[in-house]
Amino acid sequence: MALVTEFSRALTEELDYRVEVANAEMLRGAIAKTHAMPLRVPQVYRDLCTQRMIVQERIEGVPFGKLPEGAVEPDAARELADGVLDAVFEQIAVRGVFHADLHPGNLILCEGGEVALIDFGAVGVLEASMRRLLVPLLTAMEADDDQAATDIVLLLCEPDPDGVDQASLQRDVGAIITRVRNAPAGEDVFRLLLDTLRHHRLAMPPSLLLVFRTLGSLEGSLRRVSPGYDMVGQALSRAPHFARSMLSLRTAALSAQTQLVLALEQVRRAPRRLENISRSLEQGTFSVRLRSFESTGERRWIEGMLGQLTSTLVGVTLLATGIALAISSGGPQLTEDVPLFPFLGSVVGLGGLLLLVRSLRAALRRRDGST
């Protein structure tokens, strides 16, 4: 559902060329700061653009999808594919702004080996919190560390309230890593990972789903230039490089400064909060709110136990009442041969017995599920 929502938002933006103009300028700014192979973004003439029309520089070249077989020498093709992958991955993991529709028609091979991008209706933005985890995930996969990869996956995703079987998830993630590291080029790691997350009822944020979709499209495009290109293997081997690119003394200093300011602000507010607590204690208005059983699993367990206890009490009451009625000797007759009270006692007692059997069955099932 999250992916559908993201696609719907992107489609709405693609219908407004003013959004595409802004996307192109934003992507141009991100590419200007990269250290990888520069990808060309056509010049947009903003003054001539409207909601229904975009005017931009004409790009001369051949789309990747129309390159004839063998148009680029194998070594040069591999080098070109590596350069494009580095550039796109730096956009995603370091800058957080990336072209999100890299099918073979949107990548143009220009004269001299330069690669240009066109069609900026879909440009993704990946927040810093996701970027800080994406590269370590690839690094963990490259190191064959399924435990670290599983921990990162849980941080990236939104766990189901009932909890996740982390041991089972780690086994599945480990199996994916093993397959990717040993399988030939073409193993769809993105589909494998998404299928695993879906199996464990984990939801990946829309921005990260868009990254996976983009990389899946890019892989097909790069294979039009260099058949059999192992994009995933190359990305894993380059992960440590991008991890180093994300680290800088300036970034670390700014982060430390921000955390220090927040800590000092909390310290500054502490005396006032303590004063408010002290005043509430003196006035007898101090109260504590405990939000117990927030988990869906805990609530279901409590509801189940209460329901089972209620059924047991009602069953015992009905059974005792039925026995008392069944052994009574007085009362009116239902028919000439059937007294009313023993008949009612048998019906009520049977109902109580059925409730007790049902409660016992539920208790046994609950015990088996917890072991």
Describe the structure.
The protein is mainly α. It has two domains: 247 residues, no CATH class; 75 residues. 64% of the residues lie in helices and 4% in strands. The mean pLDDT is 79.
Keywords:
three-stranded antiparallel sheet; mainly alpha; 2 domains; elongated
Q: Total number of helical segments?
A: 12
Low-confidence stretches: none
Largest beta sheet: what is the strand line-up? 1-3-4
The counted number of beta strands is 5
Secondary-structure element pattern, one letter each:
HHEHEEEEHHHHHHHHH
What number is the mean pLDDT?
A: 79
Which overall shape is indicated by the principal axes computed on the Cα atoms? elongated
Count of distinct structural domains: 2
Query: Over the alpha carbons, how many angstroms does the gyration radius reach?
Result: 32 Å
Structural class: mainly alpha
Level of helix content?
Answer: 55-70%
The major pleated sheet works out as:
3 strands, antiparallel
Report the span from N to C terminus.
34 Å
Strand content: under 5%
Per-chain topology:
Blueprint: H1 2-14, H2 17-32, E1 62-63, H3 74-95, E2 97-99, E3 107-109, E4 115-117, E5 123-125, H4 128-142, H5 146-156, H6 166-182, H7 189-199, H8 206-225, H9 231-245, H10 249-283, H11 296-326, H12 340-370
Antiparallel strand pairs: 1-3, 2-5, 3-4
Helix pairs in contact: 1-8, 3-8, 3-9, 4-5, 4-9, 5-6, 6-7, 11-12
